[in-house]
Amino acid sequence: MTTSDYLSAALLTTGGLFFLAGTFGLLRFPDVFTRLHALTKADNVGLGLTVAGLALQVDSWAVAGKLLLIWLLALLAGATVSYLIAQGALRLGIRPWKR
Amino acid sequence: MSVALFYALAGAGLFSIGLHALLVHRHLLRKILAVNVMGSGVFLVLAAMAAPNAIALSDPVPHAMIITGIVVAVAATALALVLMLKLTAETGQAVLPGREEENS
Amino acid sequence: METLISWAIDVALVLLVVSLAWRALASTDLFKAIVLFIAFGLVLTLVWVRLNATDVALAEAAIGAGVTGALLLAAYAKLRATSPDAIVDRAGGISGIGAISLLILILLVAAALGYAVWTLPSDYAGLGKEVAANLDQSGVSNPVTAVLLNFRGYDTLLEIMVLLLALLGAWSLGITIPRPEAAPGLVLDTLSRLLVPLLILVAAYLLWVGAHAPGGAFQAGAVLAAAGVLMLLSGRELPAALATWPLRLALVLGPATFLMLAVITLILEGRVLKLSPEWAGRLILIIETTATISIGVTLTALFMGAPPGEEDR
Q1: Model confidence, pTM
Q2: Among residues A19, B60, C15, C26, which one has the fewest Cβ atoms lying within 10 Å of its Cβ?
Q3: Do chains B and C touch (3 or more CB pairs under 8 A)?
């Protein structure tokens, strides 16, 4: 294994941990808004780290560019969808959770 | 047991789950979902049989058939959903006629 | 070790797929059932990747999970808006002895299916070798595209006709899917402004790449439909000038081109859709381009429901 392989493994593992933490948050957090928070963290950072880890393994810039594009699209879609879900929840009268 | 056989058995399982739901549930939307799950089970058997062992060349014909099947399934689902909406608009219930009296 | 990890992934995926299907079909809330069904489609996509069926994975993600999910959610919204009573799924109509005998019957069916699958010959060679041997005659280098558009082109012709027929059936019932009642807002509008051009680009890429790598007309058409659905959701209507004959033209462009080619090849080559090797590549590109447009427009139209302009019949 080369240095970039070790770096990839580290990035992918960290990304996986973010997804794990996000999933726990999604299952354990008390209301829709905090769950969205957990979910978008996992998606944005976890997928970002995964893409970075995979980009180190490809041999052409075109493929790395496509991977980056996938991450940007997921960021855009994730942000929009969680905004829409939160807005929909507010319209339905769901108040943010308070301790 | 080979990987392909494992997936093929899972496909048979999905088909059975879908068939059970199709017969048990009364709501038409649920029946449409059930038919889709049954179809996915059939596709899974086809795809698993496309590469029955690791040495064989992956067979593109079943793959093409599955793609055709997925498109036909979405066409059938769309038509079934509109039929369900029409029935609901006429009768007020998304249940097949002749079955709404049972248990009610 | 590696085979162990590989097996662990396969077992986990199958458990996930089966439990998602089970929960989607058993959960009491219909909305939850639809969301679980979409998740089922996405995990199934991973299964296709595991089975080396990347073309199928793309079709499943775009059509099986994406378009079907959008159609299901639209139908659910319509049900909720028009007859709130009808979205309640009352518990099954079968109980007691009937339910038990049905369960036994299904278990027998499952066992018979399992036995049939178990005893399938594992040394079956398939048609992979034949396809590979004739691939350079087909005009494309992706074997799945070669089968879809050349070797078994008549299947695909009929499939496109099925799609068109489904739309004609849906239109003739005159059911409209309600537009979102609230204003879509700036965020969704911005998203659709950014995404729609990109989705059209992705569709063109999938169409082009289908000749030599996973992709093709159906995946591209579904991505085009995603752009159409996104535009409808963000409150954009089809302009009235386009809703008449241009819409119909876009709908029949693919089927008509394909059908015309079938007739021409029948006359010139003596067999339906027999593409001569030196023309096959170009002909496949023409069929796929027109089919992509028609598939995209047809799937978007299925999402709309009744033909535009005739909503208030």
Answers
A1: 0.91
A2: C15
A3: yes
